[in-house]
Design goal:
This protein has 6 helices and 8 strands; from the N terminus they run βαβββαααββααββ. It is α+β, with helices and mostly antiparallel strands and 193 residues long. The structure holds zinc ion. Zinc ion binds at residues 137, 140, 149-151, 174, 177-179, 185.
Length: 193
C-alpha cells in the first residue's frame, strides 16, 4: 500500500490538536522538591537545544565529518531503547493505518518536548520507504547557519523508529535543512543498499 503525496498524509484535524495538547499537558508533572519532570510517567529533562548543539559542535571540532555519524547512531540507539518503554503495542503493530496513528502520536510527543512539528509525507512500509518533514524545528534554529544539514540525531531517531516498527534495515537521510537555508527540514528513509 504505497501512498505518496507532496503534502501531508493527513486529513484536517479540527479539534484533535487541542485535545492532544490538553492530554499531553495534563500528563506533564513537575516536582521541584525532588527535581523531577515527568511526561506520561517517564522522567525527562528540560534543557535548551543549545546544550545538544554544543555536543554536536564539540564533536565536529574534534572528529570532523564523523560527528554526523555519532549523532545519527546516538539517535538510532535512543529510538531503540526508548520505543519499547513508550508502548508495548508498537512491537505488535501492523504496517497499516495503526502505525500511522502511532507515528502521529510520536510526532505529538516531539512537538510537546519542543522539537518542532513532524509530518509524514510518504508512507510505504512494505517497500521500507518513508519521508517526513519537520516544520518550526528548534534544533537547526539553535545550530545556526550551516553549509550542510545538521539534524543527524533526528535522522538517526527516525531510522531507529522505522527499524523497530517495521523490522527493516533502513537508512535515513536529511535532504534539506533549515540550517542550510531551506524552509523546512526534509528526510527520506530507504532500505539500506
Ligand atoms: Zn535540519
Amino acid at each position: 500500500m504505497a501512498r505518496t503525496t507532496s503534502g501531508a498524509l493527513e486529513a484536517p484535524r479540527d479539534k484533535t490538536d487541542e485535545i492532544i495538547t490538553d492530554f499531553l499537558v495534563g500528563n506533564l508533572r513537575l516536582d521541584v522538591r525532588k527535581g523531577h519532570v515527568e511526561l506520561m510517567g517517564h522522567r525527562i529533562m528540560l534543557f535548551r537545544f543549545e546544550f545538544l548543539v554544543a555536543v554536536q559542535k564539540q564533536l565536529e571540532e574534534m572528529i570532523g565529518d564523523s560527528a554526523s555519524s555519532v549523532m545519527y547512531l546516538a539517535g538510532e540507539r535512543a529510538a531503540k531503547e526508548v520505543l519499547p518503554a513508550m508502548s508495548d503495542r508498537i512491537r505488535e503493530v501492523l504496517p497499516g493505518r495503526e502505525s500511522l496513528v502511532i507515528l502521529r502520536s510520536m510526532s505529538d510527543v516531539w512537538a510537546m518536548i519542543g522539537v518542532g512539528r513532524a509530518t509524514m509525507t510518504e508512507f510505504d512500509p512494505e517497500e521500507g520507504r518513508f519521508a517526513f518533514k519537520i516544520e518550526h524545528g528548534a534544533y537547526p534554529a539553535a545550530y545556526g547557519r550551516s553549509l550542510k544539514p545538521v539534524c543527524h540525531m533526528w535522522a538517526g531517531w527516525a531510522a531507529g523508529v522505522a527499524k523497530t516498527m517495521f523490522a527493516r534495515d533502513v537508512v535515513c537521510e536529511e535532504d534539506g535543512c533549515v540550517a542550510a537555508g531551506e524552509d523546512v527540514c526534509t528526510f527520506t528513509i530507504r532500505p539500506r543498499p
